[in-house]
Write a structure and sequence with these properties.
The complex is a heteropentamer of chains A (88), B (101), C (517), D (691) and E (502). Chain B has 101 residues and is mainly alpha-helical. Chain B contains three helices and no strands. In chain B, helix 1 (5-25) runs antiparallel to helix 2 and helix 2 (29-54) runs antiparallel to helix 3 (58-88). Chain B is elongated, with a radius of gyration of 17 Å. With 517 residues, chain C is mostly helical. Chain C has one domain. Chain C has 20 helices and two strands. Chain C has a two-stranded antiparallel sheet. In chain C, a hairpin with a 2-residue loop joins strand 1 and strand 2 (77-81). Chain D contains 29 helices and two strands. The longest helix of chain D has 46 residues, at 612-657. Helices cover 70% and strands 3% of the residues of chain D. Chain E has a domain at 306-502. Helix content of chain E is 76%, strand content 1%. Chain E contains 21 helices and two strands. Chain E has helices at 11-14, 16-34, 41-63, 83-106, 113-132, 136-154, 161-192, 197-206, 211-228, 237-244, 247-272, 275-280, 285-305, 310-330, 339-369, 376-379, 382-385, 387-400, 408-421, 425-450, 466-501; strands at 72-74, 79-81. In chain E, strand 1 and strand 2 (79-81) form a beta hairpin. The chains are: A mainly alpha (88), B mainly alpha (101), C mainly alpha (517), D mainly alpha (691), E mainly alpha (502). Chains in contact: A-B, B-D, B-E, C-D, C-E, D-E.
Chain lengths: 88, 101, 517, 691, 502
Amino acid sequence: MVLDTIAFALLAVVLVGSSLGAVTVRDVWHAALLLGVSLVTVAALYVTLAAELLAAIQVLVYVGGVLILITFAVMLTRRAEDEEEVSA
Amino acid sequence: MTVPVEWYLVLSAAVFCIGIFGILTRRNALIFLISVELMLNAANINLVAFSHFYGNATGQVFALFTIGLAAAEVAIGIGIILVLTRNFGEADVTLPTEMRW
Amino acid sequence: MIIEALLAVTLLGGIAVLLAPDRLAGKLAFGISLGPLLGGLWMFWQFDGSGNLMFDSAAKSFESSLSGTTLLSMGPWDVQWLAAVDGISLPLVVLSTILTTLAIVSAWTPIDERQSQFYALVLFMEAALIGVFTALDFFVWFVFWEGVLVPMVLLIGVWGGPRRKYAAIKFLVYTNVASAVLFVGFLGLLAGLDGTITSFALPEISQAIHAGELQGVGPFSPEELATVSFFAMFAGFAVKVPIVPVHTWLPDAHVEAPTPVSVLLAGVLLKMGTYALLRFNFTMLPEVAMANAELIAAIAVISILYGAMLALAQRDLKRIVAYSSVSSMGYVILGLVAFTVYGVGGATFQMLSHGLISGLLFMTVGVIYNTTHTRMVGDMSGLADRMPVASWVFVAGAFGYMGLPLMSGFAAELFVFIGAFGAEGLQYSPIFTALGMFGIVIVAGYLLSAMQKSLFGPFRLETDYEIGRAPFHDVAPLFVLLGLIVLLGVAPDVVFDMVESATQPIVDAAAENGGGA
Amino acid sequence: MVNAFDLVWLIAALPFLSFVVSVTVGRWLPKEGALPGIAATAGSLALSLWAFLTVRSSGAHYENELYTWIDAGGFELTFGVLVDPLSSMMLVLVSLVAFLVHVFSMGYMNDDELHREKGGFPRYYAGLGLFSASMLAFVFSSNLLMAFMFFELVGLCSWILIGFWFREEAPPSAAKKAFLVTRFGDYFFLVGVVGILVTFGTSGFADGGFPQIASHFLETGEGADHIWVPGDLDTQTWFSILGLLVLGGVIGKSAQFPLHTWLPDAMEGPTPVSALIHAATMVAAGVYLVARMFGFYAGLPTVLAIIAFIGGFTALFAASMGVVKDDIKQVLAYSTISQYGYMMLALGVGGYVAASFHLLNHAFFKALLFLGAGAVIVATHHHQDMWKLGGLKREMPVTYYTFLAGSLALAGIVPFSGFWSKDEVLYDALLIGLEQPLFLAAYAMGLLAVFLTGFYTFRMVFLTFHGEPRSEHAEHPEPLRWNTKGPLAVLGVLATVTGLLNMKPVAELIGNHDILYLENWLDSGTAANGGEWMGSLTYHHYGHLVHEVAGLHEGSPPPSAELAPIVFGAISLSLALGGALLAKSIYDVPEPERMTDRLGPVGRVVQRNYYLDEFQVWLATGVTEPVARASNTFDQGIIDGAVNATSSVSLFSGERVRRIQSGAVTNYVLVIVMSLIVFVVAVGIVGGWFL
Amino acid sequence: MALDTLGGEDWFLHLAPALVMIATALALFGVDALDPDSTNHRAVFGVTLAGTLAALGSAIALLFGMGPELGTTLFSDQLVADEASLLFTLIVTSVTSLVVLGSYDYLEDLPDKGEFYSLLLLAATGMVLMAHANSLATVFVALELASLPSYALVSFLTDNRGSVEGGLKYFLIGALSSAVFVYGISLVYAATGSLLLSDVGTAVTEGVDQTGVLGLGVLLMVAGFGFKIASVPFHFWAPDAYEGAPAPISGFVSSASKAAGFLIAFRVFTTAFPLGAMQDAGIDWVFVFGVLAVLTMLLGNLAAATQDEVKRMLAYSSIAHAGYVLIALAALKSGGAHNDWVLAGGMLHLFVYGFMNTGAFLFVALAEHWDVGRTFEDYAGLGEEAPVASAAVTVLLFSLAGLPVGGGFWSKFMLFGGAIQNGFWWFAAIGLAASALSLFYYWRLIRALWIDQPTDGGHELDGTPTGLYVAVLVAALVTVGLLVGVGPVAEVAFDAAGNLVG
């Protein structure tokens, strides 16, 4: 009972915190990492809601797929930025 | 279920708002994407929570679709962002303003 | 079938002309236009109908077996093909065909580029005009009504004068706004007849309204609905007529349009407005018209006098004739609101008469312009010296406009005045009429001044070529028109008999519904 | 057996035919249209005489519908023929003068090589033909509407003929002025016609016509059901309004004050035209019209008073201007106005016979004077200024003596025709005037005008024909041919003798009323067959109406009843003679002087026609034109401005609205989110979600 | 379980158009994969055209009752096959056919032709599925299926900054909107516990506890739809995307995608959120749509009136037309006698609009093909040089303005007439005023074509792109044909609308 509540509260705090972090940190790379944190937190939240399968898929698809895509994109776009910085 | 379902509602709303906040405040296209992902997740939290609440699987199934489509969206989005970077040199969404008015 | 045949011949002829080479287009269009012309005259000859189509009592003429065919079903409503003529519409059909043929002939000289397109558009417009005057289903009618607009705006826009672009867009948007307003007005009536009618046939709608079937819609009581619809439609048609203060498209359009188009614009298009006013407002909702008779009469009188004053201030011959149309159309309104046989019949007669006379004047100005390349009164002087035929025809037309007896203008104006003077439903009718009649003095003022300055006096015009007589095909149409004007002036009964028979039911209905008389 | 009456329509149709001939093939004919015109008017004259004699012999009157113009809505408008003593007399008069003028025109126009109008003569004769046709049709009109229509047509012909020399500046302008001023009067006329049609349902003159209905109602109060009166107006007042409205046309056409200004300008037209149209016939149309529908006016005292006063005033007013004119045609023009004033005065006092009499006489002597002036003009190569003439008596004896006959008639010198009719007019006016002071004022003005008439007439005669020639042209005038002299001679005889038709003073003196041929003629309806309805068109009937219905009683008889006409005839004769003698003393000298300069400012005012022309020009150009221009500015600026402003505002707001599309996607998102929030809040508050 | 009862009776027949298109898209990948380096344009084009025409034909056949009976649900009520879905399938497949026809010449010199066509077909499939969607889940999935290829198609010209910019904006706003939309769905689910439209409707009718949650959800869904149909204020992507996209794609997105978006809006709001119950609950979506309609009509027309570029003018005009169609939702009335009329008017307008608008954009494609230029001035004199196409587009433009030269007149009449019948005369008034204004800017193009003199002596028009010509002509002919032949379509629309508003 209390445990559930505590777990929810904990997860909520982490989720909100990491989400806020994801949209506020300067560096895109950090933002992507923080997004990963919040996605995992959501997966954990699913577990508390008895949606284990969904949680697994969340981790697989989101963290495994989306995050990697984003990471990839960060690398690609950052390189372009860096080049510009160098040239500038 | 001991945690009141409204709490999930509030939590998801918070995440949703954070997503909107991100979209409004950041100019980087990737952050934009990240924010959208957060909003989609907020929806999913709702769906899963109420799926649990109502005891039917509908919400969960739908959440599954959402995850899938979110992934596809990111894929397309990143493609576009890459083209954007190629054409405009930066992944800044405020950069392309040639078409206006 | 004759009506359908006229439409088909004109439309297909238009397409044929469109495909014809430029150098043949004018002659070909003339040949094709003889078809509807002869058809129209044959109808006029054979006309055996009586009464007004909007009433049960009408004996329909030339209604074909196609009439009543359902074209579309819109939920519970049917759009039908309904076409017939009565004593009001048949003369207008004939007028349209006559003026179109003459306009085509008069276009031979001035129109020298994109000829096949020009003549094709004229024929398309003729088809739409015939449609407007014969269709009895609202939607078919409205299709034709707007169908006139499209060729006309292109004719002005492509072949017009220096400010044609401005004139065309102004005409287009202005009249289209008007159409929108009248459309809403009419839809209001339809909404009020919800459940009563099953088609958009105008006679059915009119009879339903007369039978008191109109119900309130939304916040409006039946009476309010009738009033609102009446004025919405009135405003819409007023633009087409045009009535002051919604007349300002007219001078621009007239002045910029090429001569043949001006002829059609003044000769027939303006009649669409008055015809529609008669068919819709004054036939369907006579009680509203009578309840607001003084207001409408005041508008008419203002149109007459104000339009005449504007004409007085102009220096461009075409503009003078254009503004005089505003004035002349005021008489039509004055006649309509009188709700007497002479008033309404005279209004119809004035439509015909004005069509012929203004057509004649525009054509004459065109002939003069073709030769002199100016229309400004101050630029020329003593033109009668070099162009006697055109000048004296202009004189004849001008006197027709001034209401010289034994020409159609006098007959028309006299009928209107007689009709309006003793109108029972119109308070102070003698005063309104007398005020309106003062227009005949002002019209004489500006036309005589214009003639004195431009046609008479010593010849003076700076040109680097010899001013000579106009070619035969330029002046021939003038004499046809002049002949018709005199014919109608000497023997108005030729037309007025059928007009009267179509007018009487309106007057009777007004007397019953409006409680006047 | 062909009845003369059945051919009356031909009287108008023949000149119309000549009009058609002139227009179509005139230019290829010898004399370019003159001959068909002469033939047609001769035919008309013959037919008119035949009709006149038929009326005389049978005492019959004839009314017939020729053609139904329109028949709708409860009443029909027709063209018809009404032949009675008045119209048959007028037909003869008009066709005679028209015939003579056609003949004269050959001399005046065709023979004048100097002022040949290339290709213009067919137009000239077409105009004359159309005019004759219209005027004759006007005369035999059986109803007011038809009369109005031909009234307008003669106006058109007047316009065409005044502006005949359209290549010059002045004639077209004068033509415009003439048409416009008469049009102004005709406007009231038309309102009146329409009003009469609506009021009575008919505009017929004769049996069952509106004069009969009106007088019957005024007399007995019967028949009100068939009379439409607007609102709660008093019926008699309404009749008076209608009468005044019709009078508007009369004032315009007969050149009465204040619409007389066009007539002097109309002298720009060829002189035969002036003779025919602007002296003898068309200008008479107004007076004739009042006489024609006198049954209507006779019962309306107010209208009669106005007619009389306008007439008297015009007579004096125009005469005063005639005194100072230098142009021979101008003098004649003002004298014409003045003489028509007398006729109006006569009608206003119920002097139906006197008016008709003066109309008849005036037509002859004024046509004569104009033709004489025309002869002078053509002989001296178009010199009209009397100060450039003089001494023509010797070179042009025929012209001089006929002109003198006309002048004596005009001045009212016994026994020439003018004396008799003018005297009768004044006598009638005096009789009514003794009762009603307003009429007495009209009489006084008329009487004073007699003196002026004598003066200006002989001033004209002396300046033109007496003394020494004052210019090259006057010294050697061109010889004239028969076609000028013939008409002059005919008219000269007529001007001398027509006065014998109605010598009222003589009749009173000898007590034999049988010699009042004209009066008996105009009263012959009752006398001849006593037909019921014809009573309504007789002098007798009119007199009855004037006295009984309008209440204009003749004043107490003058001191010596038997002598009265003679006495007052003597008074006016002596005034005329006085004027003539004064003229002789001043102008019948070898070196006459311009006296107008001595009149000082008054003279200038008179010479400028009391600035009435200026006033009317000011009305047209100083008032109407600025109003028109202001309307135009208003139209272009405000009304069209509003239209253009609508489009400008639309486009401007479009220009503004599209600026929210800033191009930056973050702004888009911001707007979307904000509007979403607004929606949520708004709908939430309205829907009560937060409760 | 037999194949034909997998999702319901005859499901593959019901879904034949969609299936044909998916199959064609897959076949395209196959054809393209055979030799990726040198795509055989004719073959790819032929396959695509055959596929879309087959889909179109099957839709027509189904509509004429040659297939299974309509009005059934498939896959456990997830999809529905009724007149409405068929009508919109017809719209989508027609538009797709026209666009495919027009694309042949447009793509002549561009790479990745196979991808283009397959994306087009997939997007079209998504739109057809939108027409069939019967649950919020399928609505969302179909919506995304339609949107994702569209993003790619808009930014298809990867070297063209405009195309990329348009695609980016389309994508970003689209992503946001789909997130908002799905969040709205989740809230509706939270309030009602169901995603099936009918079940949601039942739950709403029975009353929900959480009015605020439901209301918020509904409004968020409105925003999602608003994005799809480019309604003000969710329209911002539209002008930029339409302007930047390849012209055939602009036509495709602004016609087909909009139509599909409208249909699910019609379906969702009439079925899942019954007006009476919602208004009782204080969620007056009709009012919201009313505001949207007025804003959209006004802003769309006003902004279009002042554009300098033809394509952007058409883009704004397409927004304006969304405003007219929104009246179909805004003029519904609880218990209104003429709800079917109003709704049918919207459907009919979308149908006619599909042809008019696609035709107009394809004309722009023609101009782009000829390198005519972008602004009105650049188009000057085209009427003389390409009279047939210009005449066709003249008819289309007049019809867009609502003049009775084409079917646009009837559909506008139905919309405004229905609004008046239901008592919302002010919509009709605003709509007609806006239409009148629209005539102004459509006229500018007509004027440019026929009246204005070309500034630099005319254009060099190389070649006659047959496909584009045929497409523009067909669009014009159908539009004109609908003037007299709108009857059957109107009947279907009435039936479809009747099914929705009952």
